[in-house]
Amino acid sequence: MWDWFPIVFFQFKILVLGVGMFFAIKWHRDQAKSDQSREYRTPAE
To answer: Transmembrane stretches, by residue range (predicted)?
Structure first.
């Protein structure tokens, strides 16, 4: 009965970690892009 547990668990774990990594990378890229666009919008003093 428990023979299927490791297969399902590890596939689910890989899926969850993959989605988490995707959104972490996306968030960091969006933050860098917004920081970069803020630099260009600030007036020179």
So the answer is: 6-25
pTM: 0.68
Concatenate the DSSP letters of all residues of 5-44 into one string.
Answer: HHHHHHHHHHHHHHHHHHHHHHHHHHHHHHHHHHHHHSPP
pLDDT of residue 44: 58
> CA torsion sign, 7 to 11 to 14 to 20?
negative
Tens of pLDDT, residue by residue over 1-45, are 779 999 999 999 999 999 999 999 999 999 999 888 776 665 655
Q: Which two tokens stand for residue 20?
A: 């988490």
Report the sign of the C-alpha dihedral through residues 38, 42, 40, 44, in that order.
negative
